[in-house]
């Protein structure tokens, strides 16, 4: 079948965008990303294992990747930068060492008490806490605000703030020894950086969400799969990373206009009515369907060409 596509006016240009980052080859054949803005992070390892695929690894293995103040800040900075990075089309989020993350750094939590004690008045104390909470919320919401799909790859354990974090990701995968724990009630608090807001939308069963959040019991990989928290379970971390990178790569080969508009629309639709969401995508696509990607991808389908290359976005 031949399809005439009005491609005149579309400049099928090679990307001339200025280089945003430099890839540095390492001995392992993985490229360490040097992004615009901050070039490296103290608590995160950022690499480019496949074309257009970034991997962000939580990297405090000695402390089981507990989220300390620096890591909270760097997560927000990193995902905000990747949102802007035209060389990034999909992101794999993983943890280094023994497990994915042990949640918030409990030493930081304990440091809060003397800080609050400096203030006598409840309103002044509350103001300090409010700023903390909102800045931590924003750090994790950066995963969701980032237009590039985020694929969380969880090995061994994902505790407390880790669950807040992965529920802000697009997809979740885990190893067969993995467990998830909404641990906040065990440290005497209601979760406040995403789990209570997003987990009910992810796994659907309100009853199960409440059980997990009130009891802080562990949910193991088989139950995480059955409940829909994760899409797939893998034998071990190595096999999981390999396969999740493969999924990310398949996303990165598609039109960035199509994928990123899809993410924006899915996030919007989760929080709005069907009609509001239909209006929203109609408004987006009245522009996006004029993109060169639409013409190129459609022609690729018609001509059965699986190797259409899309310009950077
Ligand atoms: C505005 C706030 C919003 C956010 C709220 C978030 C809330 C939460 O995240 S609640 C959950 C907090 N996390 C925990 O309660 C988990 C604590 N850790 C553990 O229970 C165990 O470490 C674990 C079962 C995960 C693993 O046990 P394992 O025996 O394998 O390891 P450990 O010997 O316990 O730990 C090894 C070293 O890591 C340090 N560490 C572990 N977790 C944390 C942590 N959350 N914060 C700080 N440090 C942690 C542990 O102290 C060991 O360090 P070292 O003694 O120097 O070897």
Would you kindly provide a written description of the structure presented here, covering whatever features stand out?
The protein is built from eleven helices and eleven strands. The protein has 313 residues and is α/β, with parallel strands linked by helices. The chain has an eight-stranded mixed beta sheet, with helices on both faces. It has a three-stranded mixed beta sheet with strand order 7-9-10. Helix 1 (69-84) packs parallel to helix 3 and helix 4 (161-167) crosses helix 5 (195-203). It is globular and about 70 Å long. Isomerization of 3-trans,5-cis-dienoyl-CoA to 2-trans,4-trans-dienoyl-CoA. It is found in: Peroxisome.
Roughly how many Å apart are the termini?
30 Å
- Estimate the global geometry from the Cα principal axes: globular
| Main beta sheet strand tally, sense and closure | 8 strands, mixed
Q: What string, H for helix and E for strand, traces the elements in order?
A: EEEEHEHHEEHEEHHEHEHHHH
How are the strands of the largest sheet arranged?
1-2-3-4-5-6-8-11
């Amino acid at each position: 079948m031949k399809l005439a596509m009005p491609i005149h006016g579309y400049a099928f240009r090679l990307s001339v965008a200025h280089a945003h980052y430099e890839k540095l080859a390492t001995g392992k054949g993985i490229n360490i990303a040097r992004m615009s803005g901050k070039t490296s992070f103290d608590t995160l390892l950022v690499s480019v294992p496949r074309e257009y695929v970034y991997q962000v690894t939580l990297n405090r293995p000695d402390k089981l990747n507990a989220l300390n103040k620096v890591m909270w800040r760097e997560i927000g900075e990193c995902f905000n930068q990747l949102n802007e990075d035209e060389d990034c089309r999909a992101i794999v989020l993983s943890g280094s060492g023994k497990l994915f993350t042990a949640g918030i750094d409990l030493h930081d939590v304990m440091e809060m008490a003397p800080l609050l004690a400096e203030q006598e008045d409840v309103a002044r104390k509350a103001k300090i806490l409010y700023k903390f909470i909102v800045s931590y919320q924003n750090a994790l919401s950066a995963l969701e605000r980032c237009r590039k799909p985020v694929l969380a790859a969880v090995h061994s354990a994902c505790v407390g703030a880790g669950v807040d974090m992965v529920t802000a990701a697009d997809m979740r995968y885990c190893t067969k020894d993995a467990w998830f724990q909404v641990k906040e009630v065990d440290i005497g608090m209601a979760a406040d950086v995403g789990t209570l807001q997003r987990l009910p939308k992810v796994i659907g069963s309100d009853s199960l969400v409440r059980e997990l959040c009130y009891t802080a019991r562990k949910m193991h990989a088989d139950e995480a799969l059955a409940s829909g928290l994760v899409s797939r379970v893998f034998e071990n971390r190595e096999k999981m990373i390999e396969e999740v990178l493969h999924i990310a790569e398949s996303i990165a080969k598609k039109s960035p206009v199509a994928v990123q508009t899809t993410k924006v629309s899915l996030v919007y639709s989760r929080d709005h009515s069907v009609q509001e969401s239909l209006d929203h995508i109609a408004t987006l696509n009245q522009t996006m369907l004029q993109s060169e990607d639409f013409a190129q991808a459609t022609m690729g389908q018609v001509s059965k060409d699986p190797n259409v290359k899309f310009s950077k976005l």
